[in-house]
């Protein structure tokens, strides 16, 4: 018997989508792991991959879309905005919730990673 996502209840469809997204992220990281020997770099890249769904791979969101391209912003600006989301100073639809799930160190790591993407 063949099943399609169209015939699955919404919660199961959502879980299936999440599972596919996680598999894609793992496959992407697996390809990176072959070339990277530094565990800190892998950890940072994995952390940054959590932002890719909305902000694009390496912060390169599609130009013209409503989402912010993180790769063109300086590190200090990114961190200040993440902290503003976290504290509630900057209103958001979801970022205020997302930032509360990260430690200060993780937010600093994300800011440093995306801030370095635009440098030659």
UniProtKB/TrEMBL annotation:
<keyword id="KW-0349">Heme</keyword>
<dbReference type="InterPro" id="IPR009056">
    <property type="entry name" value="Cyt_c-like_dom"/>
</dbReference>
<dbReference type="GO" id="GO:0020037">
    <property type="term" value="F:heme binding"/>
</dbReference>
<keyword id="KW-0479">Metal-binding</keyword>
<protein>
    <submittedName>
        <fullName>Putative cytochrome c</fullName>
    </submittedName>
</protein>
<dbReference type="InterPro" id="IPR036909">
    <property type="entry name" value="Cyt_c-like_dom_sf"/>
</dbReference>
<dbReference type="GO" id="GO:0046872">
    <property type="term" value="F:metal ion binding"/>
</dbReference>
<keyword id="KW-0249">Electron transport</keyword>
<keyword id="KW-0408">Iron</keyword>
<keyword id="KW-0813">Transport</keyword>
<feature type="domain" description="Cytochrome c">
    <location>
        <begin position="26"/>
        <end position="118"/>
    </location>
</feature>
<feature type="signal peptide">
    <location>
        <begin position="1"/>
        <end position="36"/>
    </location>
</feature>
<dbReference type="GO" id="GO:0009055">
    <property type="term" value="F:electron transfer activity"/>
</dbReference>
<keyword id="KW-0732">Signal</keyword>
<dbReference type="InterPro" id="IPR050597">
    <property type="entry name" value="Cytochrome_c_Oxidase_Subunit"/>
</dbReference>
């Amino acid at each position: 018997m063949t099943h399609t996502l169209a015939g699955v209840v919404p919660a199961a469809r959502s879980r299936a989508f999440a599972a596919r997204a996680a598999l894609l992220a793992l496959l992407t990281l697996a390809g990176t792991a072959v070339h990277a020997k530094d565990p800190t770099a892998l950890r940072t890249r994995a952390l940054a991959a959590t932002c890719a769904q909305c902000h694009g791979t390496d912060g390169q969101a599609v130009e013209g879309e409503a989402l912010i391209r993180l790769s063109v912003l300086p590190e200090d600006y990114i961190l200040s905005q993440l902290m503003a989301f976290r504290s509630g100073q900057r209103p958001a639809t979801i970022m205020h919730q997302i930032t509360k799930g990260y430690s200060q160190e993780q937010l600093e790591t994300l800011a440093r990673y995306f801030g370095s993407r635009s440098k030659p």
